[in-house]
Amino acid sequence: MTTIRAAGGVVWRPGDAEIEVCLVHRPRYDDWSLPKGKLEPGEHPLSAAVREVAEEADTRAVPQVRLPQVRYLTREGIRKEVDYWSMRAVGWGGFQPQTEVDAIRWLPIEAAITLASYVHDARVIRDFASLPPVTAVLALVPYEGGEPGERLAPLLALLRPRRLLAAPARDRGQPPAPLAELLQLPIEVEAVFAGPEPGRTAQERVPAAAARLAALAGFGAAAVVCIQESLIPGVLAALRRSWPIGSTDRPWGSPSTTTVGNCWLLAFNADRLVAADPLLGGDR
Questions:
Q1: How far apart are CA 265 and CA 214, in angstroms?
Q2: DSSP letter at 124?
């Protein structure tokens, strides 16, 4: 069966009394739904989600946490899979009339759930509402086995990072210079993200690297961190332990293992991890 791939977001902004999320109206179906749209050929779902939010909701937004994937049959009987991210609205613009959207509404959570025309949209909004507030987003990028800069950098740019941190040059299996050029950021070298010295283990370096990431998040940093790949499994495990038992459990789960060469989208509430999601697919 043919499957349509699409992506979108639960876009939020501060309201007068509580946060508000965005729904869009499509006159063709006379429905209220989350902004979303089909992937273009070869397009990454995260890129599509940010693009579609701009085109349908007239909103520039920064991704934060990957939400549950929705699967359903369209009215024409075609299977559809939609990837969603929570997104913080940071500006306006990008609306495209050909999206068939004729109205946009910003509503408190419960009002949005009530207005949403589809059960699966209401469920995604509820899952978003179950998350602690996200105050910082970091991207964790491995040196060894990483994606080519020409594919990775545009994805990382969607996070609107303000800093690019990297281990010393001796640890670089793939220098971040192309990434720095595309992001227009200087490389801040930090030894805490380097691999182990000869005769030492990666695990010995994990506590300091995890503590540095938590500190960056605590200051509200929006950053890309290029780290020696062998540290990543231990760092993710250490950050997940920063919450009391059970408090980081999302209804749809968090990956418990890493994919070699993958990048990670880390969302924090203050210095505590909210979610860790692979940016290039893999674990779900």
A1: 14
A2: H
- Cβ proximity of 35 and 22 under 8 Å: yes
Residue written as tokens 């729904």?
Answer: 23
Q: Which two tokens stand for residue 21?
A: 């999320």
E-strand stretches of 27-100: 31-33, 36-38, 59-73, 79-92
Residue in the block written with tokens 């009002």 = 111
CA distances from 265 to 98, 171, 246 (A): 31, 22, 20
For range 146-151, the mean pLDDT: 56
Q: Where are the beta strands (DSSP E) in the chain?
A: 3-13, 20-26, 31-33, 36-38, 59-73, 79-92, 103-108, 136-142, 163-166, 187-189, 222-227, 264-269, 272-278
How much is the pTM?
0.89
